[in-house]
Amino acid sequence: MYLYRNREVESFYPLHFFKNLSDIRIGILTNLKRYGILYNSEPTYLIKLDDILCKGIYIDETFISHTKLSFKQNTILLKDGEIVGYYILNKTAYNRINTKSEIEGIKLEYAYSIIKHNLEIIKKDYILLNKEYTHNTTDNLILYGEKRNLFICETVKINGKIIFNTENGPIYIDDNVIFNGFNHIEGPCYIGKDTIVDSVKIRPGCTFGKVNRISGEIEESIFMDYANKHHIGFIGHSIIGNWVNLGALTTNSDLKNNYHNVRLTIKEKTIDTGMLKMGCIIGDFSKTGIGTLINTGTITGVSCNIFGSKSTEKFYPSFSWKNSTIMYDIEKAIDTIKITMNRRDVTLNKDTENTLREIIKKERNSNGNQKLS
């Protein structure tokens, strides 16, 4: 089983800098774990395909499927006419394969595609994991919907009252999650390991990675790992990167007043998402100040510090300070990142630091210490 690097990886800006796309959690699982469970074999990641393919199944890392494949001959795998993989029984050059077959699954084209499909993927991941209900309803745990659609790990702590609603989809609560106060959670939803949930209203279609701090209202959004939204505010139809901190009352818009499709701007390129609701995508290590109002379809790169009394701009390149034109000093940014990570007993490694320096050179054409802040 092989997953290979997508050639259009930069279409997933700003999520592609520190992880392979196959390592990004979508639904409940990463694609590496998803295919590992499906085929009972840990996939090997390939930076590029060789001209000659040996026996095995080769899948584009941006293609998500819950259907186990089986063919009787070498086959090119297609989704809506686009190549998403190869099923190889006999060693061959991939450009010599004549048989083609359309297969079931989801092909992600851009970062916003994750938001579009996350709700559906949670449902299918839950079925794949085949978990059984383990908790009884009590005075502090109320369930609306079917028990089989709720899985809570034994190490979860509920300090207060919580309402789970699985009428529209399953809810999976992973190890060592702590609930404080009153919480209302609607499925489909996944809450990752060691996350603290404080008086939150979670609407359907949300995924939270490990060691998050979440509060307020959240709808159809994906939080990566170590993200902090520990205050009141609304986040909807958005992706929040690793180590992002959202200041108190940070709120995003996910719907245009004219009800037209949301358009994104990435590096001077405008993209029509085809989505009526689309919030924001915030890159790793970025932060918002108190009361930040995030515009519909806003994209921020890596290590941005966004604050001010006005609604945000549509695009912030990496290392933006307050607005898109002022550059965040790289040394100050890295120092803050180290402090942030140390608060969670994590150390910034040299590879990540080097990547940060490469990003500022590429996006800002700078070594990072020529301007503010």
UniProtKB/TrEMBL annotation:
Keywords: Acyltransferase, Transferase. GO terms for molecular function: acyltransferase activity; nucleotidyltransferase activity. InterPro entries: Bifunctiontional_GlmU_bac-type, GlmU-like, Trimer_LpxA-like_sf. Coiled coil: none annotated. PANTHER family: NUCLEOTIDYL TRANSFERASE, TRANSFERASE HEXAPEPTIDE REPEAT CONTAINING PROTEIN. This is Glucose-1-phosphate thymidylyltransferase. It comes from candidate division TA06 bacterium.
